[in-house]
Amino acid sequence: MTLPPQAPNAPPVQPIFELIEVEQVFEVPKPGRPLFSRDTVGLRALDGVRLSIRKGTSLAIVGESGSGKSTLLRVLLGLDKPSGGRALYRGKPIGEARAQGTDFARDVAMVYQDARGSLDPRMTIGAILAEPLRHFNIVPPEGEAQRIAHLLDRVGLPVDAAERFPSGLSGGQVRRVAIARALASEPSVLVADEAVSGLDVSTQAQLLTLLQSLQRDMGLTLAFITHDLGVASYLCEEIAIMYLGRIVETGPTDAVLNAPAHPYSAALRAAAPQFFEPLSEPLPGEIPSPLDLPKGCRFSTRCPVAQSDCQSKDPQLGKLGSGRAVACIHPITQA
Amino acid sequence: MTERMTDVALPPVLTLRDLTVHRGAAKILDRVNLSLGQGETLALVGESGAGKSTIAVAIMRLLGNAKIDGTIELAGEGDLLALTERQMVKLRGQRLSMIFQDAGAALNPSYTVGRQLSTTLRRIQGLSKDAARERAVELFTSVGINDPEGRMSAFPHQLSGGMQQRVMVAIALAGSPDLLLADEPTSALDVTIQAQIVRLILTLTRERGASCIFVLHDLALASQSCDRIAVLYAGQVVESGPAHDVLEHHRHPYTQQLKSCVLEIGTKTLTAPEGTVPSHAQMPPGCRFSTRCPRALPRCAGEAPPLVPVRSTAAGPLDHHIACWNPE
Ligand SMILES: Nc1ncnc2c1ncn2[C@@H]1O[C@H](COP(=O)(O)OP(=O)(O)OP(=O)(O)O)[C@@H](O)[C@H]1O
Ligand SMILES: Nc1ncnc2c1ncn2[C@@H]1O[C@H](COP(=O)(O)OP(=O)(O)OP(=O)(O)O)[C@@H](O)[C@H]1O
Ligand code: SF4
Ligand code: SF4
Ligand SMILES: [Mg+2]
Ligand SMILES: [Mg+2]
């Protein structure tokens, strides 16, 4: 694949986000505890996550339900402080950056999965979009209406949508409003949790072409959670594949999907529907509970190529060359 | 497993003729014609609101107070719409059963999954308590539930989404139905679990020689799992036929549009279609796709095209149908 025009040929610059050995442990009720007991155990939702997000890139975060994708986004947004490791935004701890005022909140915008739930049903679309414009002093009051019209146009909504309430819009239109609101503060980073899942394919196609043009034209940095590898492959230059609280493989999306090195990435790839291919042999079993992590490699209970040493060593994410990294003792090598 | 003796040897198992459903003024299904042979798997595809669930629920005769016209012939039973509710109660679970989209909501949260399956078995197969329990453990084993004895006493919330869906498959197959309706059985699941469940349903229905209607929204998954495909748009079947003909030699502009929106791994170009499905109040009287169709002719909005057989290839069979005045 060809790199987009804005690909830096300059020396490596500071990444927008950098996660170093990030851990997120939630105290949860101990399973099987007596009714009124307060016993808790630590649930390792993120366990040693390493990730860096370059300026202007688009990153897909994929993985099974419960693998920690949303927890990771909450850390990136500074909504939750990680219980271990370091999470940096332009070199500064995210918590600090967020506490220092409006710059972070303005620069990093979020599109939630539940777009309708994230919009106040009593406010018109115009009022919803005006809020960030005022909060961040984006335009003088007299320019507000024009800016709102521009934002609506940018996401493909008619100007008269400004007078409507969220209840008067379809699911796809509501997602467009959520994107318009995220763009209102003129962010350089857009973070989205399953922003197109559950939509019809034609609406999904409309939103994906929109997101791609925004990313390219405005040089946005995009972090995009999805469980659809076709979406990841279309929209995102890079991919991070998560399993049970850890990133097990990352790299350029096409390289990873064409020749996955981690057996879990290979299983995800094989399970993705493909026209007229025989249905893939599915992975055995379910994702284990994060309260009861397998010994050694956490994929070893389901890994089709596990060997005897996989239960004794816990593989860490290690470099593979060409911008790729994998956490596996016996990575798949392509002949 | 006991073989069902079917007195009707000849396919088709199910035939829908001009099935039309009104809810108030809205015509949510419009003259749907479909048939399904014994042992065949049919995918219903199309966008939200197209009427896929309505077809499945109409076949189960669980549409409540909607107004239904046309016929639903089930081999050996005649027109289901002419049966009494008592007769339908006997058919449900025995000859027809349905797996609902949201397994979590379809299971009763206050009973163990073992009890829910045993109750079904006792009701439809008239088994004793002990025999039902034994059969339930067998069924749990056949749908790939580990530790089936232990899982009998689990409540739904103690199971993952994938396990809940397996329980639903076991309940649906309890009476060895000859037609299984599966309404998006996997869309709430992860891809790897989705692959497990689709394979499971196919293996089990094939083993039993049963027919299956899958409501799916993923065309690629439909091509991998179904013999035939019916494409619906706003309550009308616009194209139907063998999966290969519909997906590779489609003639209807809407099928073309649906297919062009599919993102396979490696797809780098995407042209998004314009517009949205009109509301029922604004539905054109003729071809319902005419408000968005790039090939529309002047007659299209006013005159509804009939579903007619076409040959997708010169030597092809005539069981490929489209409803379009200006096919590709
Ligand atoms: N606030 C919390 N308290 C306790 N446990 C939590 C909390 N948030 C998440 N978890 C647990 O952390 C793990 C990771 O959850 P997370 O929501 O990040 O997964 P996900 O990858 O986003 O899954 P999905 O695809 O289902 O959205 C899960 O086991 C979840 O139950
Ligand atoms: N109980 C109901 N009362 C009124 N209208 C209904 C009802 N159920 C469905 N409809 C309408 O009937 C039409 C067909 O709905 P149906 O649920 O069959 O679509 P579907 O193809 O299954 O869509 P989805 O992919 O969203 O499940 C829609 O326009 C819907 O709004
Ligand atoms: S370390 Fe072993 S068990 Fe883990 S993914 Fe690699 S081969 Fe499989
Ligand atoms: S009948 Fe006309 S409007 Fe309808 S799909 Fe065919 S060409 Fe398009
Ligand atoms: Mg999540
Ligand atoms: Mg439905």
Can you put this structure into words, describing what you see?
The complex is a heterodimer of chains A (335) and B (328). By secondary structure, chain A is of the alpha/beta class. Chain A has helices spanning 69-76, 94-99, 102-107, 125-135, 144-154, 171-184, 201-218, 229-235, 253-258, 263-271, and strands at 17-29, 40-53, 58-63, 84-89, 92-93, 108-111, 189-193, 221-225, 238-243, 246-252, 318-321, 324-326. In chain A, 29% of the residues lie in helices and 22% in strands. In chain A, the strands form two sheets. Chain A has an eight-stranded mixed beta sheet, with helices on both faces. Helices cover 31% and strands 21% of the residues of chain B. In chain B, helix 5 (129-142) crosses helix 7 (161-173). Chain B starts with 13 loop residues before the first strand and ends in a 6-residue tail after the last strand. Chains A and B meet through helix 7, helix 8, helix 9 and helix 10 of A and helix 7, helix 8, helix 9 and helix 11 of B. The complex binds adenosine-5'-triphosphate (2 copies), iron/sulfur cluster (2 copies) and magnesium ion (2 copies). One adenosine-5'-triphosphate (ATP) is lined by residues 23, 28, 46, 48-54 of chain B.
